[in-house]
Please model this.
Amino acid sequence: MNTVISVENIAKAYGEPPNQTFALNDVSLTIKQGEFVAIIGPSGSGKSTLMNILGCLDRPTHGKYYLDDKLVSTLSEEELARVRNTRIGFVFQSFNLLPRTSAIDNVMLPLIYSGVKQSERVERATKILTTLGLGERMLATPAKLSGGQQQRVAIARALINDPVLVLADEPTGNLDSKSSDEIMQILIRMNKEGRTIVMITHETDVAAVAGRTIKIFDGKIVEDKLNKNRVTHITKEKGVRS
Ligand code: ADP
Ligand code: MG
Model:
């Protein structure tokens, strides 16, 4: 399989010496097409920093990042924006939907940026929302939807440009256990369709769904292993967190 992500000795420093801190320090990893990877680690360990770099939302201060064999540091802002919009789907803990905008308009947004015409935008967004069980709720604004439904809208938006890579930062962090499992079923299905998924979570039962787990601690990878006991459902009861 092709290599989608190749990270070589990257670091992310904040501040100037001697008060410099490293959110990431000498991180190297390779992720191949079709993998489902969970990145785990305690709060403050550098997970979101890594995801922002993988998503071309932020740049490392040291090291190299190749996405689809392209060295990201050589891309212009315009090229980066295009990569983010067409090659990567983002899913966040807090959904990040436009609040006064209907579900379908939220999902169509990335297509406006990529210049798809209105009739095709409506057609594609309708299809994907229907697939995700929201065919009846397309005109609802986020406030009228449950957390699980909002996350499904966010996933529809992430998938609308048919990205090769889906980056999810704590996608179930704001959801109860039933909605969490529904979201994980969608991620599993997307992965079976061949999409590469990198999911950040600090919940071990959520990570157990992935095929591979990378553990981060203090900005370094401390473990990288295949999941022998991969599960297909979230088992543990979990409460709703804010
Ligand atoms: P996680 O997502 O694992 O909770 P983060 O990647 O958000 O961790 O943060 C890793 C470390 O980097 C933390 O110590 C955090 O305080 C620090 N950090 C993150 N963003 C900044 C920033 N903009 N300026 C300074 N320090 C930051
Ligand atoms: Mg984080």
